[in-house]
Amino acid sequence: MEKIKVGIIGPGNIGQDLMVKLGRSRYLEVACVVNIKESEGLDNARELGIDASAEGIDYLVKNYKDDIKIVFDCTSAAAHLSNAPKLKEAGMFAVDLTPAAVGPYCVPAVNLNEDLLKSDNVNLVTCAGQACTPIVSAINKAADVAYAEVVSSISSKSAGPGTRANIDEFTVTTRTALEQVGGADKAKVIIVLNPAEPPILMRNTIYTKVKNPDIEKIREAAFEALKTVQQYVPGYRFLLEPIIQDDIVTTMVEVEGLGDYLPKYSGNLDIITSAAVNIGEKKAQQLMEGVK
């Protein structure tokens, strides 16, 4: 089976972890990796036999407009605002791993469908968005969430310059996803960078104020969401299964990474790259169906 060629913009920690995961894909093949300067990530790509350039997105578009169908943007929110129109003009499907939110939010366990895959750009929200939206959405369907509040704690060692530069976008984008995709009437998000040693795994505490506090229905829905996410993020699990007091449901979710390029404690980054690969593979299958 001939694989769909893809590109990566920004071979930092996330981009390099993507390279490893995409190397295992049945449907996707990395053809080009670009950056705006020479870097370890470009060197690693070349060692894998991948074309790599420090000439940025312009190199990618100029040389692969007719070959690459899917591009993973692992840069920053500000950079993606510049990259998105260039990718659209080139006819390349953009999987945006930044909080730029140019395209619609995509949380595979909740809203990935054929229509979303037909757009030219989808946004991966944030790590907290990927971790918490499935649970909020499940509880909302079971009990109608009036308010959701998330406290997302990640190891400071797994928060690189991109994450730190996008803190404001992180909180706004995650909150919006909890409302628009998760279905909460209102939401609030707090991020904590934890300097603990040894580094902690990503932990997300999810509080939901519900209108129909039926804990059995809530637990059933939450466990179904858990299983769905685990199909592409095996290290996704409950630290605290849903409990209820009055009309407040509390749930805690932990994310352990696969340990590909990134350490296992970087579950906050791993859940983003795993979700991105899941989207890319579904898009590749859609493209393959179109060829038949």
Structural account:
- The protein has 11 helices and 11 strands.
- By secondary structure, it is of the alpha/beta class.
- The strands form 2 sheets. The protein has a 6-stranded parallel sheet, with helices on both faces. A 5-stranded mixed sheet has the order 8-7-9-11-10.
- Helix 7 packs parallel to helix 9 (167-180).
Summarize this structure as a short list of keywords or feature phrases:
alpha/beta, five-stranded mixed sheet, 11 helices, 292 residues, six-stranded parallel sheet
What low-confidence regions span 5 or more consecutive residues with pLDDT below 50?
none
Number of helices: 11
Shape summary: globular
The H/E string reads: EHEHEHEHEHHEHEHHEEHEEH
- How widely separated are the two ends? 13 Å
The share of residues in extended strands comes to 25-35%
The side-by-side strand order for the widest beta sheet comes to 3-2-1-4-5-6
Chart the SSEs and their pairings.
Blueprint: E1 4-9, H1 13-22, E2 28-34, H2 40-47, E3 51-53, H3 56-64, E4 70-73, H4 77-89, E5 93-96, H5 108-111, H6 114-117, E6 121-123, H7 127-143, E7 145-155, H8 161-165, H9 167-180, E8 186-194, E9 202-210, H10 215-230, E10 236-245, E11 248-255, H11 267-291
Parallel strand pairs: 1-2, 1-4, 2-3, 4-5, 5-6, 7-8
Antiparallel strand pairs: 7-9, 9-11, 10-11
